[in-house]
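Supplementary Text 2. Reproducibility record for the structural model of the 333-residue chain.

All settings were left at their defaults, and a single model was retained for analysis rather than an ensemble. We include the record here because the model underlies the residue-level annotations in Supplementary Table 4.
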Amino acid sequence: MRAARFVAGRLAGMLGVLLAIAIISYLVFYLLPADPARLACGRPCTPENLAIARDFMGFGEPWWRQLLDFLGGIVAGRTFGSGAAAIHCPAPCFGYSFQQNAQVLDLIGSHAPVTASLAIGAALLWLILGVGTGVLAAVRRGRLADRFAMAGAVAGVSAPTYLLGLLGILVFGFTLDMVPVHGYVPFAQSPVDWAWHLALPWLVLAYVHAALYARLVRGQMIEALGEDYIRTARAKGLSEPRVIGWHALRNVLLPVVTLFGIDLGSLLGGAVITERVFGMPGIGALMIDAVHELDVPLLLGCTLFAALLVVVCNFAVDLLYGLLDPRTREGTP
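Retained model, structure tokens:
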């Protein structure tokens, strides 16, 4: 029962956050001066044609009615226009891109494998490298390994992602000609080429994030190693790897899991800068194209999809917290 209440509470909070994000995002995008109906009207755009375009796209109603129609479309689907020219968008309908003549969710789905490949691969790398480097620096505190690791971490935290990407392209792509610097190959087409085209973007993203994780883990690990339960474990004769890996690292992983959920959710919603630098057709590139074309429905759909991924990842983190620390399920401090 406690576990059920724990999950139900997190689900209710997740739905509330998603509803708030949907409302705010809709108001932000649809109260902007840009008029999607005018962009779709064509030239010459007479007042009569503009009115027809607005009615067809659903922009002829008051803003609150448009918002209700949009939210209802997510749950039950939506139909734009009427008659033979009507366009039906089945649930969950995140909108319809009239400029690309496609459902927003279909466009996102066609670009999502690229972003997922980039985000998940980089996340695994930075989690392993960041946690491992942080533990090593804490265990070797004050020594050469610690200083070298923290110097690299400071450089990673300070350097912008686009700068590291361009440097990687210049050095490993053009100068050494070791890896591809542009494009994406689907996994089904060639797993080797898929990984080879992602190698450099993975390393760039992993270095930037691993630097932050290394600093976080080092600080948390140094604090944990000074606790009484660590001294007790050592007094019982436990080996040092078991003391560090089982007792100290388990408590250090709690803030790491929180940060990892936020970072992974954000990247799954679109690694905008990295995808642009390496010319990868992911969700981030789709969002940039929507900005250039002023495709407001597509922008709104991508924003809500990215928010959904962040919220879902945070929900997964809450569940994982309950496994790592049962006190979170019991409501005890």
